[in-house]
Amino acid sequence: MQIRPAVAADLDQLTDIDGTITSSNYLHLERTGEGLVQNWKLDERPLRSRLIEPNAIDDETRFSMKQVVNGIEDGLALVAEHEGVVVASLLAQLQPANSTLRLLDVRVDHDHRGQGLGSALLFQAIQQARDLGLRAISAQTKTNNVPAANFLLKRGFDLAGLDTHLHSNHDLVKESVTLFWYVALT
Predict the structure, then answer these.
(1) I need a surface site. Which of 3, 87, 91, 149 has the fewest CB within 10 A?
(2) CA 43 to CA 122: how far, in whole Å?
(3) What SS3 class is residue 124?
(4) What is the mean pLDDT of residues 164-186?
(5) What's the CA angle centered on 97, arms 186 and 3, to 5 degrees?
(6) Is the pLDDT of residue 172 over 80?
(7) 48 and 76 in contact (C-beta within 8 Å)?
(8) For residue range 4-42, what is the model confidence (pLDDT) as tens digits?
(9) Which fold has domain 2-31+44-135?
(10) What are all long-range contacts of 81-85, with beta carbons under 8 Å and residues at least 24 apart?
(11) What is the pLDDT of residue 144?
């Protein structure tokens, strides 16, 4: 297994990474109060039926990966390669205005999970962010992706906030609220 910077030839292999999300739980978000006096409570609950979501790499992520790999945008694009095949990737963009590195995508092929590849990719991103003197790394997950939330929690990320309307006006009803995560580096 080798972790290395992504190159243009890797872009075609990204679609072959099986990033399927499987989970039996979701994070239920409960809101109380009104106006400026509101409280939010997250609670892990079982799903009615097991979540199996393909989570294919989308066009926006693929485009961002291409931009970073080709040096058009500042960021970090890493891949993990096993026997000549890309089995994991990480994409992050530099956010100079905030002095952060924004984690856009971490995916590990379903057959290679549980071997520490995601952690190794993330720790390399953290080290690069430290080397650049950045103050934090940010990430986003949705409440229906408990494995991603647990992955970030176990690696030192703190839940920093939420957005109930980022993707639609009905995210709270659909139980797919966006969660914001940060890990401080300084």
Answers:
(1) 3
(2) 26
(3) helix
(4) 79
(5) 60
(6) no
(7) no
(8) 999 999 999 998 999 999 999 999 988 899 999 999 999
(9) Aminopeptidase (3.40.630)
(10) 81/1, 81/2, 81/3, 81/4, 82/1, 82/2, 82/112, 85/13, 85/16
(11) 87
